[in-house]
Amino acid sequence: MSTYDCSRPDSRETGLAAAANAVRAGGLVVLPTDTVYGIGADAFDSSAVAALLAAKGRGRDMPVPVLVGSWSTVDGLVMSVPQQARALIEAFWPGGLSIVLPQAPSLSWDLGDTRGTVNLRMPLHPVALDLLREVGPMAVSSANRSGQPPASTAAEAEAQLGDSVSVYLESGLSSQAAVASTIVDLTQSHPRVLREGAVSLDELAEVLGVHVESLR
């Protein structure tokens, strides 16, 4: 287990290289995002994703979201990108909005019991984006044990997750500490918010031009 201070250029470069190697080797890493810190693994490594769920103490009934490093990555992960999704991506990515869409049927990944969907987000954080652009899509969940408070520093994440994680990337206090992303489901005929967070219902409605229902 290693921790790297990404506020220092030399340590940041070394840490990103170590994190990329860990992800490629099937390990877990903790990384900063624009909301809370995340625990991540290669999205296409089912054993690594299972280890992520185990580290959190979380079941398959709560599948892991996927973070991407660019807009274009989404096209290869979903069945199609509807106009509503493209409008939200243009308005809020990178940023605190997660979008649930039907996944591409050809994908050989196992993120949990997704029922054929995938929860996608592009984070607004330079360290996260650099890592994602190096290793590709990552399965990333909040870096905490299930039922415990989300981590707003890598040190807080380490206190909960310990040596189940190979590499911790520290980048200081989250800019929106303890505020998770908003999750909007676009798999139905009308958009539904599964979790309210960094992006408000009013902001979503303004972009989509329709009332957005919240299930919370």
UniProtKB/TrEMBL annotation:
Family: Belongs to the SUA5 family.
Chief location bin: cytoplasm
InterPro entries: DHBP_synth_RibB-like_a/b_dom, Sua5-like_dom, TC-AMP_synthase_SUA5
NCBIfam families assigned: L-threonylcarbamoyladenylate synthase
Annotated EC: 2.7.7.87
Location of the YrdC-like domain: 13-199
SUPFAM superfamilies in alphabetical order: YrdC/RibB
Superkingdom of the source species: Bacteria
PANTHER family per record: SUA5 (PTHR17490), THREONYLCARBAMOYL-AMP SYNTHASE (PTHR17490:SF16)
Catalytic activity annotation: L-threonine + hydrogencarbonate + ATP = L-threonylcarbamoyladenylate + diphosphate + H2O
Record bears the keyword Isomerase: no
Subcellular location: Cytoplasm
Keywords tagged on the record: ATP-binding, Cytoplasm, Nucleotide-binding, Nucleotidyltransferase, Transferase, tRNA processing
UniProt keyword Transferase present: yes
Entry protein name: L-threonylcarbamoyladenylate synthase
Organism the protein comes from: Saccharopolyspora taberi
